[in-house]
C-alpha cells in the first residue's frame, strides 16, 4: 500500500501549541508552581505576541492535560495532574494494543503481576476497617443476580484490595485496567461456571487476607486471574496457556521476597 494514500502533508506548529510548550516548560522549571494563577488573557496575549484565540486554545489544551484549572470568571491556575488524568493520556494507545491478541495477553499478564503484588500487601497490611470493606464488597458480589451487577461488584471487590495500599496511582491503574479489559470481563462471564469460579476465588482470597497469609492470598489471586484469562480465550477460540506460563510462580516469588527486607506501609498518595 502506498503511504501517500494514508498521510497528510506536515503542517507548521500552530501558535497555541508554541504557547503550550512554553507554559509547560515554566511549570517543569518551577517558574509556575501548583496553585499559581496565570496572568489575565490580555497580558498573556501581549507576552506571547498572539491573539486571544491562540491563548484560549492553549489554556484549553493545558486543561485537558490536567495542568491548569479554568473556572468561569476566574483566571486559570496551575494544578497537579491527577493519576487518573495521566492514565487517560495513554488510553488510546492501550485500546489499540487490546485490539490485538498479543496485546490482550500482555495486559492480562500485567494485571496478574499488579494484583498479585497488591494482594500480598493487603494480606500483610489490611486494617480491620479494610477487611470490613472487603467483606461488604464480597457480600454484594455474592448477592448479584444479573451479569451487569456481578461485573460491577466483582470490580468493587478487587478495588477494595487495591485501596489497602493507600496509593492513588494503584487506584487509577485498577480503574484503567477495569476499563481496558472490559471486553475480557464481558466475554469471560459468558462461560458456564465463570461467576461461581470467581466467587469461590474471592472467598479464598479474602480468607487468606484475614488470616494474614500473603503466600496463600497471592496463589489464590494468580489462580483466579489465570482462570479468568482462560475463560476469555476459550470463548474466543484461542489457547490461554501462555498467560499462565509467563506469570510469576507464587512460591518462587515468596521465597525470593523472604530474602529481602520487607518495605513498610506504602506512603499515602
From TrEMBL:
The keyword Metal-binding does not apply. Residues 13-81 form the HTH gntR-type domain. Residues 258-269 have a biased composition (Basic residues). SUPFAM superfamilies: GntR ligand-binding domain-like, Winged helix' DNA-binding domain. GO terms for molecular function: DNA binding; DNA-binding transcription factor activity. CDD domains: WHTH_GntR. The keyword Transcription regulation applies. Signal peptide: none annotated. Keywords: DNA-binding, Transcription, Transcription regulation. This is Transcriptional regulator, GntR family. The lineage of its organism: Bacteria, Pseudomonadati, Pseudomonadota, Alphaproteobacteria, Hyphomicrobiales. It holds the Pfam family FCD.
